[in-house]
Amino acid sequence: MDTLTHHSVLARFGYALSDPVRARVLLALRDAPSYPGELAALAGVSKQRLSNHLACLRGCGLVVAVPEGRRVRYELADPKLGDALTALLGVVAVGNPECCCTAEENHIDGKACC
């Protein structure tokens, strides 16, 4: 892969993680495959709202839908993604939890917010 392709892959991954609902879904699927109703309850959102997030995650290539009769089970597209999430949590957890800014705050006037 060239650098431009790497950039695109990381941007999609970052976009998927940028929403708390999608991050919760990915972390839940890291532990085990699940169904939309269960994921909606876990994330505290309606099934319709969760459906939109699952579509985003499928579009990013991070989750897959596995038909099971009349139901659909969701799981990570690649088991290595679960390992990557765990590793990312380990790295991020050592950072300063008070140093987190919104997109609007980030790099205002050329200065990082932290």
Automatic annotation (TrEMBL):
Residue stretches spanning the membrane: none
Entry-linked InterPro entries: ArsR-like_HTH (IPR011991), HTH_ArsR_DNA-bd_dom (IPR001845), HTH_Metal-responsive_Reg (IPR052543), WH-like_DNA-bd_sf (IPR036388), WH_DNA-bd_sf (IPR036390)
Domain HTH arsR-type: 1-96
CDD domains to which the protein is assigned, alphabetical: HTH_ARSR (cd00090)
Coiled-coil blocks: none
NCBIfam families reported in the protein's UniProt record: HTH_metalloreg
Protein name as catalogued: Metalloregulator ArsR/SmtB family transcription factor
Species of origin: Arthrobacter burdickii
